[in-house]
């Protein structure tokens, strides 16, 4: 069993915004309605979504490469190093995606590293309206250093 340790999520969150093609308009509408709150945080996005957020809403975004080309994996790697604090991922439940394994891996990593994820507008509304959204928050993550120590002692 993996031991856990407590860390603090900063008040200024690092938020990943991701949307499948059929959901990009929904995400843009949601972001536009929450722009004043989101501008107070650091925003990351997969490629196409990031460029849409910059060009259509003027949001300052760190754009990764496109999701199918590895952008989901880039966000996943950032989850493991605590460089992403929250994921808003409007995924399309009605369309099979060629990069479904990447999406599943991203969601798995978010669960492993105890990162809040919203996969639809209602959950995103709950996250952004939470009193924890704009405050520092203590939470637990896997204690990887402890895991390594135990593995190298045997």
UniProtKB/TrEMBL annotation:
Coiled coil ranges: none
Every copy of the MGS-like domain together lies at: 7-154
Q: Which residues are catalytic?
A: 72
Q: What is its EC number?
A: 4.2.3.3
Write out the residues that bind substrate.
Answer: 20, 24, 46-49, 66-67, 99
Q: Name one GO cellular component term.
A: cytosol
Keyword Lyase: yes or no?
yes
Q: Name one GO molecular function term.
A: methylglyoxal synthase activity
Q: Name one Pfam family in it.
A: MGS
Give UniProt keywords alphabetically.
Lyase
Picking any one GO biological process from the record gives: methylglyoxal biosynthetic process
| The keyword Cell wall biogenesis/degradation is assigned to this record | no
Q: Name the top EC class.
A: lyase
Q: Which reaction does it catalyse?
A: dihydroxyacetone phosphate = methylglyoxal + phosphate
The family assignment reads: Belongs to the methylglyoxal synthase family.
Q: What does this protein do?
A: Catalyzes the formation of methylglyoxal from dihydroxyacetone phosphate.
What NCBIfam families does this protein map onto? MGSA (TIGR00160), PRK05234.1 (NF003559)
By what name is this protein known? Methylglyoxal synthase
């Amino acid at each position: 069993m993996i031991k856990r340790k407590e860390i603090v999520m900063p008040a200024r969150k690092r938020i990943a915004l991701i949307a499948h093609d059929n959901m990009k308009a929904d995400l843009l509408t949601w972001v536009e309605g929450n722009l004043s709150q989101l501008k107070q945080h650091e925003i990351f996005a997969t490629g196409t979504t990031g460029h849409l957020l910059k060009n259509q809403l003027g949001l300052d975004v760190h754009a990764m490469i496109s999701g199918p080309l590895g952008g989901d994996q880039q966000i996943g790697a950032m989850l493991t190093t605590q460089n992403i604090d929250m994921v808003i991922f409007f995924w399309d439940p009605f369309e099979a995606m060629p990069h479904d394994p990447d999406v599943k891996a991203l969601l798995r990593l978010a669960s492993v590293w105890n990162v809040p994820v919203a996969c639809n507008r209602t959950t995103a509304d709950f996250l952004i309206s939470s009193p924890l959204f704009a405050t520092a928050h203590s939470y637990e993550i896997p204690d990887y250093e402890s895991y390594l120590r135990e593995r190298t002692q045997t």
